[in-house]
User: Fold this.
Amino acid sequence: MKRFIASLLIVFSLTAKAQQTEKQSHTFTLKQAIEHALQYNYSSINANRDIEISKQKKWETTAGGLPQINAGVDYQNFLKQPISLADLNQDGVNEEFVFGTRQNMTGKVTLNQLIFDGSYIVALQASKAYLEYFVNAKKKTDSEIRAMVTSSYGNVLLAEESTKVLERNQTILEKNYSDINQIYKNGLGEEESVEQIAITLASIKSSLSNVKRLKEISLKMLKINLGVEINDDLKLSDNLDTLSRNNLDLALSTSEFEINNSIDYQIASSLVTQKRLLLKLEKSKALPSLSSFVNLGATANSNTFTFANASQKWFASSLLGVSLNVPIFSSFARSARSQQARIAFEQSKTQQTETEQMLKLQYQKAKSDFEFSVEEYATAKSNLNLAERIERKQQIKFKEGLSTSFEFSEAQRQLYATQQSYLQSMVDVINKRAALEKITNKN
Assistant:
């Protein structure tokens, strides 16, 4: 019976473990993928934890100025009590005697309260700036996640569309190869024509295998960015053509760039605030500090351990005190620390100016890249239509014997290259717009 119960428990354990590791299925639009990543991406999770840590740090600083209560118990047991000598009779003869009891116990409770400390006030302000810094860092992480998921999502769609195009091209080429090879076998064609088609077909097959491998890698990278298990099933419900057309609006690139909306600029400004408060903190250390304390205690004495007995006599005591500390001279150590803080403050302001200039430059580049991607998309779409027409004409001419196999193969290769350029242009539109939104902080 015991073995049966043990076996049953093992089966239940394995079943529960299998259920925990069971693959899940996910289907996301790009918007849903971004929303999921903002919640479950590993960097996003840790950024939220940084905010929680900073909140606890802020409270730790605040608590330093609130009442502090400590309790303690001291127990002493003289294994051998010290001997004291004294001339009690004033006859020149010292007598030996022992002061006190062999065992002593003291219990005490101390209340400390800070009344005034300039550095505490500044520390409170600094803790708020510290929290603000990590809030901005979380915003920056979210911005990077949006761009990263957009890029990963686009790469998967690119691989999927490329796979479809290459498979379609392979099917057409295999039929062409079969037709031309049959013509050659019937003595009505040239062997070179068969070989040209064979070369193109082999190239398409190789490209198709590579794209399928890239699709698997891109899909796993997207899963990692989304924060889902790498072995889960993931399907994308958006398609590349719709996404690219939805991102063609140039209104974003024509709007005025507000530098204050940039997360990077906000972080740089937050750093300036922190350094300014650090300078203020060093200066405040030259101010006096005032604190008070209340001490309540009780002491018991005995030659044996009777402190737990109800009859043990305890002697209470209490003490109220105020402590004033006035810094007078530190051999210029405080001055040196203040100068270091001042230099660090000036450095942060310089970094803020540099960040401002770099962001303006990055905005101009991102704006230019986005506008160029829209132009390239239109050009690639037009070129694709032309390449398809040229390929069809060459195919008709080749079948009628009006063009060579080399000209037909060249038209095919041109079409295939144009197809890939068109697909890449759609992804570029999506990615370049995401990069522009990241800088302007407009989502």
Notes: The first strand starts at residue 25 and ends at 28. The chain has one domain: 24-80+95-102+116-289+329-440. Strands lie at 25-28, 68-77, 84-86, 95-97, 103-117, 233-236, 289-302, 315-325.
